[in-house]
């Protein structure tokens, strides 16, 4: 059995970014994921905003890594085709108190090295977002905030890692840890994996894994965030991200366009105990409907096409918890709560810096080019619109999912990709199939047939 | 690449196929039906039970048989039927963007008929909370799975809704070896309960709970149960099941109608049409369940026959109806009326009937039409009006409207 130089545990955005970066050095790396697919945890269910970090707590590691991640991921997205829409955001004040808070927020942004914010009056707020509900008193612009595809981000990083020779081990849940003098043996649900170094990027499971290494330093509290997704026909209502003034309770409920051309309202913030509680709640949905009705009354006339919930790995402190234990050859990446999509690549860079003193991380020659990812972004040309692509391959003209206009060719490509989906949900995240307003009324049966047919 | 045709029909369901069959013999030039599925026929293709063709073909047949028959008629009439051809948008007032395996192209038509149908609202649109397990389907998806793809479903189903279509789901589940343990309806009386008649009737009984709502779905991989709530008492309990079918609660497939800038009706959410089925955009017409979500397939088909006259008039250079006309307004508990506009000199609507949808149950419904405070007409129907299915009143009720007067209001007592 091979002993890896590094085992990275957790195939979310953070673990995938770390595995990808380490895979660029002359090291043998394994990426262990408990589930059947990468990106099936918190990284699949967030608000998918590429944050500038304007509202981070200045001076924290998070502040630095979000700002750095914003640029790293932006560049990586351009290189790989991860769709990003530079919509910008408008933070809206609804009370005098909130209005008074705007200058402070602008100064805080500056302390986070983000200087592009501007305070605007109510007229300008409504000029930018005419569909906004009544009562806005003013706003703060954050031109850099952008929307991105979280699914493609995770998949690109994992695919890149695999292309660089990282061994992706799915269905490998780590259940026990044995540390010998110079290797660590990980007991998993699919056999033992040994590695000299271990990186814990297990998201919601990071504290439990940390305990398996004998530590007792933090507890993850799953903080549920529920979201409503409105039909694409509502998209013109939300030309940019509309943010609330943050409070002690968190970032608050925002209205945002999605990269798939929908409008999203959420998230809620509710501390739970069950780390698998990714279901939605009646109270959450009712609260969001009410919020939507006040923030953007025209939304009440639009259809909701999806509701979902994600769990933030909250650890009761205002910063990431990234810590190297050289004696144990073990590195913890914990508490990547609500900014990990943006910061993931910068976290990986930071991890590499910490490991650099112990491992030779020099970039190896002859690395493969980053993968070109299929475009799921509504603002960019998709295969069904691409006359040349269809002429070259008629399967790109064969629309299977009508609402999202996903073609047979795209389904085929996803199923044949280096990191293929494990189930229909995985196929949905790779193609948008069944993600639309009919939720499978027309295409559900056919997509299932294609999935099972190609898997054989 | 732009292709020119005389008439483009979007959607090859009962309405589109029948419109094409009616138009093709009288139109010099191509009548092209664009259908995104691999087969024409629309919803009846997978609705494999009898109940089709009564009013239009004076026959009683199964959905798939009906779909084949309408397809044959359209083809024999000389219409061009193109499948796997999806209209994705507009490049001009009557120019369509079309994607098919044969390429991406524009189709420019002198007249366009929208016949894109309607679909059932899926679970998220109904705000049913809980997990997102496998085993939650609309009737459309269920019938696709069972009839077209010969799939297994579960063993114990809960059906959300008790409309006509819900009983169609019961039949399909039964055929697939799945028992319906419960049907829920938020209304005081199950919508279609008293009205449901199929030959031989159902040989099995289904428990229907009125004033009941499914509030949550549970299950990690597969559905394990639902929580239901009595709307009057607030009492809740859990019903074990492995399948949930969300039925009815229709919404027109109005994407093209919206993106084409057509005036929409707030009630039907489909395009607003006059009695000839002309929309607010000259040369663009509509037919079928896009206009009245939802009536039976034969009524959709007869719309298709009806719309032909207006299309031919437009092709012959008759001027577009332009503005004017008296709007029809459905007052609560009526949700909508179709068509919505009576123009001076316009024809009576398809089958001489106005279609209405009620959100309340009335055993002996009385419908009254008033204009500017004046009663235009009253009618009493011998059968009930129930949520979940269309009921129809004679057009004569509003025929006497003053073309220069205000909107005609329709009320239900
Ligand atoms: C509602 C919400 C909104 C958000 N919005 C944004 C946003 O707009 N922008 C932004 O940048 N961030 C946002 N975030 C935060 C972002 O989603 C997370 O920070 C990020 O996804 C964390 O990635 P991760 O890789 O750490 O965790 P995960 O994606 O959860 O990955 C951890 C993985 O580890 C696996 N695992 C756990 N235990 C084990 C084990 N014992 N063995 C093997 N594998 C294991 C899990 O299966 C999982 O796949 C949001 C989060 C939420 C919940
Ligand atoms: C489960 C179920 C059971 C039913 N049972 C009965 C019954 O027993 N008897 C009865 O009379 N009626 C029944 N009905 C109702 C009947 O099916 C409908 O009334 C009828 O299909 C409506 O016809 P239509 O042409 O308006 O729409 P549809 O049949 O929905 O056809 C619309 C067509 O347009 C196509 N289309 C849509 N958009 C595009 C686009 N952009 N480009 C290309 N093509 C497009 C669609 O693919 C579809 O084929 C049932 C319906 C359901 C769901």
From TrEMBL, chain A:
Top-level lineage group: Bacteria
Domain FAD dependent oxidoreductase: 5-354
Signal peptide bounds: none
BFD-like [2Fe-2S]-binding domain segment(s): 399-452
Full protein name: Glycerol-3-phosphate dehydrogenase
Source organism of the structure: Nonomuraea wenchangensis
Pfam families found in the cross-reference section: DAO (PF01266), Fer2_BFD (PF04324)
TrEMBL record, chain B:
Residues of the signal peptide: none
One MF term in the entry's GO annotations: oxidoreductase activity
A Pfam family: Pyr_redox_2
Name the record gives this protein: Thioredoxin reductase
All copies of domain FAD/NAD(P)-binding, residue ranges: 6-301
Protein keywords: Oxidoreductase
InterPro entries noted in UniProt: FAD/NAD-bd_sf (IPR036188), FAD/NAD-binding_dom (IPR023753), Metab_Enz_Cyan_OpOx_G3PDH (IPR051691)
Record carries keyword Oxidoreductase: yes
Keyword flag Oxidoreductase: yes
